[in-house]
Amino acid sequence: MCGIVGYTGSGQAAPLLLEGLKRLEYRGYDSAGIAVLGDGEITVEKVSGKVAGLCEKTRDGAAVPGSTGIGHTRWATHGAPTDTNAHPHVSNDGRFAIVHNGIIENYAPLREELLARGYTFESETDTEIIVHLLEMYYEGDIKTAVMKTVARLEGSYGLGVLCSERPGTLFAVKEASPLILGVGVGENYFASDVTALVSYTKNAIYLDDGEFAELTPGGITVYDCSGRAIEKPVSRITWTVEAAEKGGYAHFMLKEIMEQPAAVRAAIAPRVRDGEIRLEDFDLTPEELHSFRKIVITACGSAYYAGCAGKYALESLCRIPVEVVLASELRYGDPLIDEQTLLIVLSQSGETADTIAAMKECRSRGAKVLAVVNVVGSTIAKSADWTLYTWAGPEIAVATTKGYTTQLVVLYLLAMDIARKLGKLEDDRYPALLYDMLRLPRLIQNAIDMNSGLPALAKKYHSSPSLFFIGRNTDWAVALEGALKMKEISYIHAESYAAGELKHGTIALIEENTPVIAVCCNEHLADKTISNIVEVKARGARVLAVAFREDRKIVAQANDVIFIPRIGTLFSPALAVIPLQLLAYYVARENGCDIDKPKNLAKSVTVE
Ligand code: G6P
């Protein structure tokens, strides 16, 4: 959740750390801090609130001279987002400063032990015990102190360590939290995310759990958990600086909505050759596919809703039962999963703690795991049996958009590929679906272009205290995502219901002028949803429908209509979601919300 960054080199560390923190802010933005080593002494500056406050306090880093340093942007777990709880934390003797991303589960007994030994605590964080343990175990050798310290820790940690006695040296430790080393020339870096590194280097080393590294300006040594130096490959970062910047857009979210045609094209095009889908990393034989009796999809948040939409395509085309289960429920649910289960794990970041735990639980029961992930080298990508990348490029806005649509199209490709291999598609169906698939990037662009009226519509709906989203089948799946987008960034209460279920309770909430957003893009069920539109209108609702271009029936019934290009039902969620994303964006803008960094949320949720 938190973002961490470290720098050692000949330049000034503070401006670089602040720059890195700005890029990592989407991981958490309750408070921020840096620690820089200059003239044998560690200087710490921290503030509650955003990184901009830290830049102001330190005059963009000029007030904190020194060429080795660490930085942190926080999403509070233990202790309120105050200046004292902000990282870095410093040992009582002032020798060590640390930044930490993750949670130390056994911090309470360790805190008791350290208090009994006379250490004093300044903060309420779980992290602070780490820096006191380092002081306790330090006898002149940092590496040994680091190893003894982490041996005492239970939980997850991406950890950066700075020691006043070793100018130019940083230690970085990884356990169940992302940590990447940036390999430079005469300078080296670490960060919890490649977006903080892309401005400085394209060469990265991905640490595995249990590994730690010693960084100096001249080199990086990686150690395994027993302290033995090991060789690690240097990977090339493919993301560009431009991709991680706003590029003239007011918000990352808007930029990422607009990038969807290109992102979806990048997910599809390389996987279609000679009129056939080729899934490079999931090239199973029909016999292997036949061995799966069911598919379970697990994920959190929007990725879960992508799974809900993808289920329809998988079940309808492959005729295999598909369950979509929230990762936070699956992990403790005693699931009926065995070696005949294909588990599909969806995650933009590849680091979501609940999703990782669900994956481990299912794997321990024998399931084979296919990951659909955006971030290359992430924990989920590395630990699955097969990984299909979504190739969406960096997604910075907390509320996902292109992450969601690319997950969807990868599920569609998968559904078509499995169905074909299992002989479940009639001969002419596959080319017809493929034709729609290849048109999707252009149709998404059309869906964006057709909705230039959304800012005006947002003005009609932005002051509503509550919004209802309805739809049936694939439309319901999109409605779920539309309601989540609205809640996340505009803070308006929004709920999604299967349209047919309304009359079994929720319709009691419909009053004069209650806004109902009705998704009607499922060609088989649109008429049924129209009946539900009529029902809510009879009770005073104001209906905004999402429908196919030229759908006259809808125009006759709804108060307002947002159009999308026509496409077959199975893939329609990839288009219907576009105006819902834009609606949420413009409503949030109308309400003056911090769109890219909504309150209380974080992009990558690495805690339970
Ligand atoms: C957080 C984000 C959501 C995201 C979810 C799953 O809750 O705020 O936008 O959908 O995590 O993230 P993942 O990286 O696993 O897709």
Question: What is the structural class?
Answer: alpha/beta
Mean pLDDT: 93
| Tally of helical runs | 19
Radius of gyration: 25 Å
Biggest pleated sheet? 8 strands, antiparallel
- Given as residue ranges, the uncertain stretches (5+ residues, pLDDT < 50) are none
Distance between the termini: 11 Å
Strand order of the largest sheet: 3-2-4-1-10-9-11-15
Say which molecules are bound, naming each kind only once. Answer: 6-O-phosphono-alpha-D-glucopyranose
Q: Estimate percent helicity.
A: 25-40%
Annotation, overall tally of beta strands: 27
Query: Could you say which overall geometry the principal axes of the C-alpha atoms support?
Result: globular
Q: How much beta, percentage-wise?
A: 15-25%
SSE order and pairing:
Blueprint: E1 3-8, H1 13-24, E2 31-38, E3 41-48, H2 51-57, E4 68-74, E5 89-90, E6 96-104, H3 107-116, H4 128-137, H5 142-151, E7 155-163, E8 170-175, E9 180-183, E10 188-191, E11 203-206, E12 212-216, E13 219-223, E14 229-230, E15 235-236, H6 252-258, H7 260-268, E16 272-273, E17 276-277, H8 286-290, E18 294-299, H9 301-318, E19 322-326, H10 327-330, E20 341-347, H11 353-364, E21 368-373, H12 379-383, E22 386-389, H13 402-421, H14 429-449, H15 454-461, E23 466-471, H16 474-490, E24 493-498, E25 515-520, H17 526-538, E26 542-548, H18 552-557, E27 560-564, H19 573-590
Parallel strand pairs: 18-19, 18-20, 20-21, 21-22, 23-24, 23-25, 25-26, 26-27
Antiparallel strand pairs: 1-4, 1-10, 2-3, 2-4, 5-6, 6-7, 7-8, 8-12, 9-10, 9-11, 11-15, 12-13, 13-14, 16-17
Helix pairs in contact: 4-5, 7-13, 7-14, 9-13, 9-16, 13-14, 14-19, 15-19, 16-19
